[in-house]
Q: What sequence folds into this?
């Protein structure tokens, strides 16, 4: 494998080479299951395509399924990874990335599904799903994961109502809150956003994974499962970003949230963002989502707008009130949604400064960047076989555009920043602690700090 830009003596990437590892089981079992579901979804919508596009729709459905079946076969038989053939703007950078990994001889056999980095081939599968659709207009824009995301949102209604009701009660008393009460509510909503990350449809291979009850009720019982809790540093980072403005009035900093899943998790992120703005802890929020459907349940621009619309239209007073407020934040520019092709590429984030300098510069304008979820954590740390006790700063390999925090429930075999013996003890008690979604971290790093 050719070395990437940011790897200097870092451990090897996790891969399916290790038979029996989580990466191996993901590629052997979970990814083919997801592809089978995608094929099934497209086939079930055959009549819809016919109604909208006539015979052309039926032909596109057939050809798309043919390409996806071929992809599933390549994956299951450990074939070499192929260059993309569509003409989308990111195809060239994907193909350059592939060439870089084929080594100096450009050996196509050297990059295959089970032999290459897990992070790369998993991202590549989702990009190939898009290729199969894009090569077959008129169904190119069809979101194969939309049904699952929609179902997850509606099945989480009770939890959404409970969260919006709680948030309304906090908002009413916002003026009277002491600093300690503000900190208490910040901690609660940060942790609700953290545990909202359990609702991940790619980890359950698209199986129902909605949030039935409000995590507010279980925050204290979940606290022991947070292996690293840097929430006090996140709070201090927000406080230190506050500056006296021209009129002597205190102005707050900008917070960027790099989103993960649609559905309940996105609602927890929106409530946290509303709290940050309403409390004066942030003056504006930039949300970063995906350019196209990704890892089953990741947020796209369409999902983002749809969620706000659904919340506005809800037959529940505090839900719809929240939705109306969120829509007005968007209109006023207090909130903004952004996507960038880099988020749907296989790069670890230490490549960002070199491969997406515009995005790196954008993040440098934030006073705090919150990275939601497991995939972002894998990319922050390079998805490598780090020792548990290696510092978060070391694993970031120079990626530090701004003070940043990972809010993540563990669903992959990478975890850094633990105390000596902590990982080993967990392994002896619960062998699958890194992948079961039961444990979580709130990990912070600032370019200004030494930790």
A:
């Amino acid at each position: 494998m050719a070395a990437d830009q940011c790897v200097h003596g870092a451990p090897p990437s996790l891969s399916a080479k290790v038979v029996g590892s989580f990466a191996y089981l993901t590629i052997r079992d979970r990814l083919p299951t997801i592809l089978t579901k995608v094929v099934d979804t497209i086939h079930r919508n055959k009549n819809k395509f016919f109604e909208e596009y006539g015979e052309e729709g039926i032909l596109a459905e057939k050809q798309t399924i043919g390409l996806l079946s071929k992809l599933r076969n390549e994956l299951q038989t450990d074939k070499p990874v192929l260059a993309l053939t569509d003409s989308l703007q990111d195809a060239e950078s994907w193909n350059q990335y592939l060439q870089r990994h084929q080594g100096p001889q450009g050996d196509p056999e050297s990059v295959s599904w089970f032999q290459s980095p897990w992070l790369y081939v998993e991202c590549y599968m989702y990009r190939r799903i898009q290729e199969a659709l894009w090569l077959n207009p008129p169904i190119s824009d069809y979101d194969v994961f939309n049904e699952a995301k929609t179902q997850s949102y509606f099945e989480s209604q009770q939890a959404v109502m409970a969260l919006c009701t709680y948030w309304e009660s906090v908002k009413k008393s916002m003026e009277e809150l002491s600093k300690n009460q503000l900190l208490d509510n910040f901690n609660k909503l940060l942790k609700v956003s953290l545990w909202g990350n359990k609702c991940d449809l790619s980890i359950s291979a698209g199986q129902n994974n909605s949030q039935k009850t409000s995590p507010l009720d279980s925050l204290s019982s979940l606290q022991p499962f947070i292996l690293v809790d840097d929430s006090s540093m996140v709070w201090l980072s927000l406080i230190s970003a506050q500056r006296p403005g021209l009129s002597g009035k205190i102005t707050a900093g900008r917070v960027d949230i790099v989103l993960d899943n649609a559905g309940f998790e996105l609602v927890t992120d929106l409530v946290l963002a509303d709290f940050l703005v309403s409390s004066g802890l942030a003056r504006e929020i930039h949300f970063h989502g995906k350019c196209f459907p990704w890892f089953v349940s990741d947020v796209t621009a369409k999902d983002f707008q749809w969620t706000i619309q659904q919340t506005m239209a809800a037959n529940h007073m505090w839900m719809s009130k929240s939705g109306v407020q969120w829509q007005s934040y968007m209109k006023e520019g207090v909130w903004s949604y952004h996507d960038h092709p880099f988020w749907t590429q296989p790069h670890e984030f230490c490549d960002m400064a070199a491969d997406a300098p515009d995005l790196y510069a954008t993040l440098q304008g934030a006073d705090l960047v919150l990275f939601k979820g497991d995939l972002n954590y894998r990319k922050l740390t390079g998805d490598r076989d780090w020792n548990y006790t290696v510092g978060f700063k070391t694993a970031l390999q120079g990626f530090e555009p701004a003070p940043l925090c990972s809010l993540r429930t563990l669903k992959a075999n990478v975890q850094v920043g633990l105390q000596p013996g902590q990982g080993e003890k967990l392994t002896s008690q619960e062998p699958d602690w890194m992948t079961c979604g039961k444990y979580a971290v709130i990990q912070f790093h600032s370019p200004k700090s030494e930790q």
Remarks:
- The longest strand covers residues 282-289.
- The CA atoms of residues 282 and 316 lie 27 Å apart.
